[in-house]
């Protein structure tokens, strides 16, 4: 689908008039923007090919369209590798010819957004490419492409725990004809805070996690699991779950945001175990172990990330603190070690869900529907004493052999040396093996005072006893 006609409401011409004086520096910037924008359609087509959800699902009719010059922004709220998010302070609709062809329905959406902000019923934020991306045309094209892909999906999502898209630029990527680097943008609900910020707040309030917060935290975990389930039922993998990408509307409505890395899997059953070759994406500490070992993964990679994120929320600590990247590969991805849950006073059923969700075996790891059903059973019980011991199934002895192609990829990620010949690969293998041997001998394990020792993940954990238990 062309990004220049994402939905009917965005088929308006931005016009070619510039909103700034063409001094030489601005002229060069405008030229770079226009050249880079020419690649965006090509990039987006490649990223969204074989995307049945985008093809069959029409965009929401509530999305308004704006020119960038109609939106005033305030302070910077946050930024990522390619984009920045600013608060929106006011909408100032133009009365120029460029807006004369706006359809009545679109005009109503614009008026509603403007009034909501003016009357302080809602707060909004604007996400746009970073100016720094202009240093390389390819980087700017990539930054804009990620935004466009995010808009393609957000404009079609409808879930209370997924951040809502409220507005887009008139004309889609044609807005870049103005020469402004920020001509393409997303108008989003403004979040109160992020889970990362909330964890830091909890830590300041108490030196150790407050057990009274476990029901509330479990509720947050369930909300995020429901958002992921919504995606998985549509064969969409999120790929970047972490506390930084979870926010809140008001006090307790969790929101999943930042969808630049989402991808659709080929048509099939939402819960099949077939794995697919895709590039590694997201933060290493939250990425499923199979991504490092085989380079192939499926929707259950999000389940693993959910478990790590939930653990960090419950313990208010990093799962792999004080660990460098090679240690993480050796101890967690290859050996199968995880933080020692027995050091924390989790309700036994909740502990079982986490153990199952970060399981080393992809086939034994539960899908997101099973996680949601288990949490729905657990949440009403959290105020009670629970001494149940849940059955486990012995895990088959599965030694993961890392293919040479994956070892080469990890070598490239862990070294500035561009040489990936056999000698360099042998040296990398020696380093990796040494990390494993040291850990097995107890010689130099990375230890974090927040969770103590790591432990082997030796069993597969079934959620059936939780999901189907009678109250």
TrEMBL record:
Q: Where is the composition biased (Acidic residues)?
A: 414-425
Ordered alphabetically, the record's keywords are: ATP-binding, Kinase, Nucleotide-binding, Transferase
The record's Gene3D superfamilies line, in alphabetical order, gives: Phosphorylase Kinase, domain 1 (3.30.200.20), Transferase(Phosphotransferase) domain 1 (1.10.510.10)
A single Gene Ontology MF term assigned here is: ATP binding
Location of region: Disordered: 1-23, 404-425
Q: Which SUPFAM superfamilies match?
A: Protein kinase-like (PK-like)
| Official protein name in the record | Probable LIM domain-containing serine/threonine-protein kinase DDB
What is the native source organism of this protein? Seminavis robusta
């Amino acid at each position: 689908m062309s990004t220049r006609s994402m939905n009917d409401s965005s088929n308006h011409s931005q016009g070619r008039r510039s909103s700034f004086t063409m001094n030489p520096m601005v002229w060069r910037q405008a030229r770079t923007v226009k050249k880079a924008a020419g690649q965006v359609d090509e990039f987006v087509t490649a990223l969204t090919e074989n995307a049945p959800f985008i093809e069959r699902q029409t965009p929401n009719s509530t999305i308004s369209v704006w020119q960038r010059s109609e939106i005033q922004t305030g302070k910077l709220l946050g930024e990522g590798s390619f984009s920045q998010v600013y608060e929106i302070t006011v909408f100032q609709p133009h009365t120029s010819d460029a807006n004369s062809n706006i359809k009545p329905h679109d005009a109503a959406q614009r008026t509603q957004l403007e009034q909501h902000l003016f009357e302080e019923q809602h707060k909004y934020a604007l996400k746009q490419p970073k100016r720094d991306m202009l240093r390389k045309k390819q980087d700017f094209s990539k930054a804009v492409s990620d935004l466009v892909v995010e808009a393609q999906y957000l404009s079609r999502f409808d879930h209370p725990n997924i951040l809502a898209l409220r507005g887009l630029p008139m004309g889609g990527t044609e807005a870049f004809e103005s020469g402004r680097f920020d001509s393409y943008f997303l108008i989003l609900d403004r979040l109160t805070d992020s889970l990362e910020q909330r964890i830091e707040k909890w830590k300041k309030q108490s030196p150790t996690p407050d057990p009274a917060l476990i029901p509330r935290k479990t509720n947050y975990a369930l909300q995020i699991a429901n958002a992921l389930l919504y995606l998985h039922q549509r064969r969409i993998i999120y790929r970047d779950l972490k506390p930084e990408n979870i926010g809140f509307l008001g006090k307790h409505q969790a929101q999943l945001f930042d969808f630049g890395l989402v991808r659709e899997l080929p048509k099939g059953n939402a819960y099949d175990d077939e794995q697919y070759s895709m590039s590694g994406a997201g933060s290493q500490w939250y990425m499923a172990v199979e991504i490092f070992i085989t380079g192939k993964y499926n929707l259950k990679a999000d389940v693993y990330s959910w478990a790590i994120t939930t653990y960090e929320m419950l313990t208010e600590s990093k799962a792999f603190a004080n660990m460098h990247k090679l240690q993480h590969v050796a101890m967690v991805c290859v050996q199968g070690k995880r933080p020692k849950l027995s050091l924390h006073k989790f309700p036994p059923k909740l502990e079982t869900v986490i153990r199952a969700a970060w399981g080393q075996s992809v086939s034994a790891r539960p899908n997101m529907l099973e996680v949601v059903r288990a949490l729905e059973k657990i949440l009403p019980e959290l105020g009670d004493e629970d001494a149940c011991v849940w059955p486990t199934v012995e895990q088959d002895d599965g030694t993961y052999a890392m293919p040479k192609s994956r070892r080469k990829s990890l070598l490239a990620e862990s070294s500035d040396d561009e040489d990936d010949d056999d000698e360099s690969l042998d040296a990398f293998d020696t380093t990796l093996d040494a990390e494993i041997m040291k850990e097995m001998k107890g010689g130099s394990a990375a230890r974090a005072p927040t969770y103590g020792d790591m432990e082997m993940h030796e069993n597969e954990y079934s959620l059936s006893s939780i999901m189907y238990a009678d109250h």
